Amino acid sequence: MSEYLLEFQDVYYSYPMATTPTLQGLSLRLPKQQKTALIGQNGCGKSTMLAIADGLAQPDRGKVILDNIPLAFNRAALRRWRQRVGLVFQDPEQQLVAPTVAADISYGLCNQGLPTAEVAAKVMKTLTDFNLEALAMSPLQHLSLGQKKRVSIAGVMALHPELLLLDEPTAYLDSVQTRNLLVELEAIAQRGTTLLIATHDLDFVYQWADWILVMEQGRLITEGETLAVFDRLQFMPEFELGMPLLWQMWSPLAAKMPKVPAPRSIDEFNSYLQSILSNISLTPEV
Ligand SMILES: Nc1ncnc2c1ncn2[C@@H]1O[C@H](COP(=O)(O)OP(=O)(O)OP(=O)(O)O)[C@@H](O)[C@H]1O
Ligand SMILES: [Mg+2]
C-alpha cells in the first residue's frame, strides 16, 4: 500500500482560449492521512489543481492517480472518484445548489443513494456540528458570504470523503467560525481523512500543516514537512509570500537552542519564553 493517497504526474492544463497553460508539468504527491497545505501566489494554479484533483477538469497531459487508480473521464469512474474525494470551492456561490441550507446539505447525501432516515440523521448532525440549526430552513440567497461558506463546507464534510480538498476554507469566516472550523477539521483528520487545504494564510499553515506543497506558475517548486519547507523557502527568492510570524520570531532563537523543537503555536512559544525568562534575573543592575 502506498504512503501517498493522491499523485499528479507531469500534469498540463490550459483553460479554453488561454495563451499559456495554467498547469505546466505539475507533479506532486499527497501523504495519506496527513494535513497538507498547498501554497503559492495568486494565479499560480492552486484552485485549478484542486478542480483537477476532484475530476472537474481533464488534464491535457499527464496522470492523476488516487491510491493506484488513474483518474478516468467516464461517468461511472468519476462517480466513484467523487465518492472518495470531496472539494469545497473557494467561492461558495459556485458550490451551493439547493433552495435552503438543510436541502443543500442533504443534496450530496441523497446523491449517494442513502435511505431517507439516514440522510435526515446526517443532516441534523451536520447542522449541529456547524452551528447551523437556526439557519436550517433559510433560503441560501439570504445568507451572508461567511454563512454560505460554512454551509458549503458542511455539505461536503457531511459526505465523509476519504480525501477532503478545501480551497481557502477560512476566507470570509470570522475568528469564531475559523476556530470552530479548525476543531471540525482536527476531528476529521483524527478519523483518518486526508486533508489538503489551498491557502495564502501562512500563519495558519505553519501551525496546522504536517506537509506543504509550494506552487509557482503551474509547477511545484518544493514540498516536504512544514518546518523543513519554511527553512528552505527563506533561501528561495522566487517565493514572495513572506514567512509565518511564529517562524520569524523563532528562527533567530533557534540557533541558540538547537535541541529545542520549534514551537508551532503561540502557546508553545510563550511557554518557551517563560522557561527562558525564569532562568534570567530581570532585576536591574545597580
Ligand atoms: N475559468 C478560467 N478561464 C481562463 N483562465 C482561468 C480560469 N480560471 C483560472 N484561470 C487562470 O488560471 C490561472 C490560475 O488560476 P487559479 O485560480 O488556479 O490560481 P490560484 O492559485 O487558485 O489563485 P488564487 O490564489 O488567486 O486563488 C490564472 O492565471 C487564472 O487567470
Ligand atoms: Mg484559488
Summarize, please.
The chain has 286 residues and is α/β, with parallel strands linked by helices.
Helix and strand layout, with pairings?
Elements (H helix, E strand, L loop, with lengths): L3 E10 L9 E9 L3 E5 L6 H8 L7 E6 L2 E2 L4 H10 E4 L3 H4 L5 H11 L4 H14 L15 H13 L5 E5 L7 H16 L3 E5 L3 H7 L2 E6 L2 E7 H8 L11 H10 L11 H13 L8
Parallel strand pairs: 3-8, 3-9, 6-7, 7-8
Antiparallel strand pairs: 1-2, 1-4, 4-5, 9-10
Helix pairs in contact: 4-5, 4-6
The chain binds adenosine-5'-triphosphate and magnesium ion.
The site of magnesium ion has 4 residues, from helix 1.
What does this structure look like?
The protein is an alpha/beta fold. It has helices at 46-53, 75-84, 92-95, 101-111, 116-129, 145-157, 175-190, 202-208, 226-233, 245-254, 266-278; strands spanning 4-13, 23-31, 35-39, 61-66, 69-70, 85-88, 163-167, 194-198, 211-216, 219-225. The strands form two sheets. A six-stranded mixed beta sheet has the order 6-7-8-3-9-10, sandwiched between helices. β4 (61-66) and β5 (69-70) form a beta hairpin. It is globular and about 75 Å long. The termini are far apart. The relative contact order is 0.14. It binds adenosine-5'-triphosphate and magnesium ion. The site of magnesium ion has 4 residues, from α1.
Number of H- or I-type helical stretches: 11
Strand content: 15-25%
> Stretches where pLDDT falls below 50 for ≥5 residues?
none
**What's the total count of β strands?**
10
**What characterizes the major β-sheet?**
6 strands, mixed
Total individual domains: 2
